Amino acid sequence: MLVSFVLPAYKANYLREAIQSILNQKYTNFELIIVNDASPQNIEDIVFSFNDKRIKYYKNDENIGGGDLVKNWNLCISYAQGDFIVLASDDDLYMPGYLETMIDLYNRYPHVDLYHCRIRYIDFKGDFIAYSQPAAEYETTSDFIYQRLFYNRKQAAPEFMFKKKAIERIGGFVDFPIAWYSDDATWNALSINGVAYSSIPLLNFRLSGLNLSTFKIKPREKLLALKMYKKWIVVFLKNVKTDSADDKVMLKKCRDSVDNILNGHFICYVPYISPFKDFIIECWHLIFLKGFSFRMLMYIFFRKIQIWKS
């Protein structure tokens, strides 16, 4: 089975290490597609320093990811020739056994479209920070979504391997602004036949300070993406079918609680909204349209004041 590692490249800081970690895979039947997203950095010098026929290099005429990250992801995976795809990144590292383990999972669960592993988080120097929470080796759609919603189980796009036919079936990655919640929605859609997992930490996910994950980076876009994801997942959950009694319980919990759970995410981003006029409008939206309590609104105001002072 051919696997396509697809790597959208823009940052050069850790690119050489990221490429080498892929080339070091014990399972060797793969291609590495590197797409330079019109980066101003020395991406080509790094890529061309490797002499490996499995590397295929493309360069965008303009920076696509800066305006529409999901559009660039979908363009990148359109180059893939493999039976499976891994959306790699330009700063994370794979352990040599990653692909071998994912293929082993496929052999045990061939009906599944989505496979992933435990994550080891590292800092910008490569030093250990933490591990992601473990999961069952096989999860149904209901359980997979339940664990993410109720326990905020950590996951990252590069840990997943998925079938090319499956991503084509759903029309590529679900498109939300700055790809915020896009991977969540996409994994949910791909989980319809279940999800297989390895508890071995096979991805070193780098928290380099260059990630989008901090609340103050593009909060307006994140709020819009969150609103879009809320609408998306409500519709998706309505269409999930199951005969399992346990799954029915988890599915009902998800359907009943998803609105409140995701409303809680709003308070992470709203205090970072600027200018003040936009912040007030968003708070008005929260308290009158979303049913947020006055106490929660006061928390948001005090958090905004702390940010102004910092």
Number of helical stretches of at least 4 residues: 11
DSSP strand content: 15-25%
Number of strands: 10
Fraction of helical residues: 40-55%
Biggest β-sheet: count, sense, barrel? 10 strands, mixed
Low-pLDDT stretches are none
Rg, nearest Å: 20 Å
Order of helices and strands: EHEHEHEEHEEEHEHHEHHHH
Shape: globular
The overall pLDDT average reads: 91
* Terminal residue distance: 53 Å
Main structural class: alpha/beta
Task: Give a description of the structure.
This protein has 310 residues and is an alpha/beta fold. It has helices spanning 15-23, 43-48, 69-78, 98-108, 141-151, 164-169, 182-190, 219-239, 245-269, 276-289, 294-309, and strands spanning 3-9, 30-36, 55-59, 84-87, 93-94, 114-123, 128-131, 138-139, 161-163, 195-207. It contains eleven helices and ten strands. Strands 1, 2, 3, 4, 5, 6, 7, 8, 9 and 10 form a ten-stranded mixed sheet that branches. It is globular and about 60 Å long.
